[in-house]
Amino acid sequence: MALPLLTIADAGVNLGDRWLLRGADLSLHAGDRLALVGPNGAGKSTLMKLLAGQGEMDEGTLWMSPGAEIAYLPQAPQIPPGMSLRALVTAGMEDAKIGHKADAMLMRMGLDPLRMSDGLSGGETRRVSLARALYTKPDILLLDEPTNHMDLPTIEWMEDMLRQHRGALLVVSHDRAFLRNLGTGIIWLHGSKLRRRDGHFDEFEAWSDGILADEAVVLHKMDRRIASETKWSSEGISARRKRNQGRLRELAGMRAERAKAGGLTQRSMRMETGPADGGGHLVLEAIDLCASVPITQHSANEDETSTAPEQRRQLLQHFNLLVRRTDRIGIVGPNGVGKSTLVRLLLDITKPDSGRVRQGFGLIPAYFDQRREALDRDQSPWTILSEGGSDMIEVAGQSKHVTSYLRDFMFDDVKMTQRVSTLSGGEQNRLLLAKLFAQTHNFLVLDEPTNDLDIETLELLQEVIADYDGTVLIVSHDRDFLDRTVTGILAFEGDAKIVAHAGGHSDYLARKKATEARQTEKSDSKKPKKSVSENPKTNRPARLSFRDKHRLDTLPDEIATIDAEIASIETKLAVPDLFQNDPDLFNRLVDMLAAQKDSKDQKEMEWLEAAEKAEALEQGGHQD
């Protein structure tokens, strides 16, 4: 097997009161596409920083193949001001032709290549940093939550890009569909250690549940033994103190080991909301809604007052909707198309250009705003939840202490009194969920709730939504989350058009693809048919060109020769200690291997094109 591109061995990171990582081992090889999973706070981002060379270990070693390049996308990237987005993506590159590719990548992410980096939003900063990471084609690509603030078309495009990456890929993401479509293995950060399993992401749950069940058995046996030894130690210990000091030390050791093991698994998140009391059968009705936003125009002279009429972009055009109690509706569409605007119109936060929204009797919405405007960034989680100054809060009809409630949402005591502005994105989202679920409501409106949340938290949120007896409206780009939570989709499909579909997101996609296939088939049926075997100019049977015939005759032998050369190079690279003994030869062989594989790919494509032409001509000749 080829040498890894990067390895950490027996790595440890100590936070003072606990080990975040201890005895952690990991190797990344070319071709790895691995998902790094674990609960919030387990140390995933810390591990990514270590691998990227931006953190330090308290113990252990890190080795990276000489010459290997790393690109790292952190959760909160920082970019310098005063540069065009194109310059940010291409910084340090020498190829004069690279600008076109960078422009295409930025525009695919909805960004103007000539725009300056000053004043970018958090989501835009993230997209620029991702474009830079993908553009450099590094040997090792580390992506921490790359799907955050990305719309579905961009996520699907990114999946295609990452499948073509030939180096090593390690990605942290809560998006299960993204991990399922992309990953070839799983790295599970659990109990300060790393466990690896190659295979499909859907196998993770059963695998991890088995490990947790085994650990629970071990802990149960340890508890029983500690209880037995403790009982022995309390019976006449003074009479046997000298003879049994070893047994007492063993008991103390077992207690310390149990405390350590229990500290890793005893904390679990709890999430619940009360019954959706009040309200009638009708939740709301949108009647002939029209909405638009101004199109920003840049004047050549900023001091000059423009007299041109304001141009506007239409978001909604005569939109009608009837929402009934217990409906579960998902809203999907590209970034900037108007999803959040639609939500704010339905909640009467924003006024439409025309039309109106009629809300039902006794409607009490709870609104999760993706910008988290309901959170005062200068306040602490404790003060935000104890609005009246009381230590108690009522949740689901029961009184709970604020501290206990925040612990249910995985807040450490120290975090409870910190300013919201110092919390991570995941912690702020959990705080907003805690605030909403402590309120009385019968209409749950969630605008991009999945950003920055780990998979365990998402599963709990799904359970809350499943048990909720009120109405749910969700804006999300997380395909798996929508499939598990909604029964209807409102899809923005361009030209201010919103189409309603029954079912989840997968049902919507299947129906959309079937419709597009029927339209294509209908369009093709209207075109005049031509015989494939005829030349349109001479009306004589077309023949395979000499070049294509030559390709079909010679390329199979050429590909077989390349296969033999690839096998020879791989055999040489598999020699133990080759890199340590002759690093120059190792690097030359790696370059030769990559060149031969590129050559093979090109020749296989040429042969496939010629074979398809020959097959089409043969089929055309048999049509008579």
What's the domain count? 4
CATH architecture group name of the largest domain: 3-Layer(aba) Sandwich
Structural class: alpha/beta
Low-confidence spans: 262-266, 297-305, 531-541
Name the CATH superfamily classification of the largest domain: P-loop containing nucleotide triphosphate hydrolases
Question: End-to-end distance, in Å?
Answer: 55 Å
Strand content: 15-25%
Please describe what this structure looks like:
The chain is an alpha/beta fold and 624 residues long. It has 4 domains: 6-199, Rossmann fold (3-Layer(aba) Sandwich); 207-265; 282-294 and 312-514, Rossmann fold, CATH 3.40.50; 546-622, Helix Hairpins, CATH 1.10.287. The chain has 19 helices and 20 strands. It has helices at 44-51, 85-90, 98-108, 122-135, 152-163, 176-182, 204-233, 245-265, 339-346, 381-385, 402-408, 413-416, 425-437, 455-467, 479-485, 505-526, 546-573, 578-581, 583-622, and strands spanning 6-14, 19-28, 33-37, 59-64, 70-73, 140-144, 168-172, 185-190, 193-198, 282-294, 312-324, 328-332, 354-359, 365-368, 392-395, 398-401, 443-447, 471-475, 488-492, 498-502. The protein has a 6-stranded mixed β-sheet, sandwiched between helices. It has a 6-stranded mixed β-sheet with strand order 14-17-18-12-19-20, sandwiched between helices. A 3-stranded antiparallel β-sheet has the order 2-1-4, with no helix packed on it.
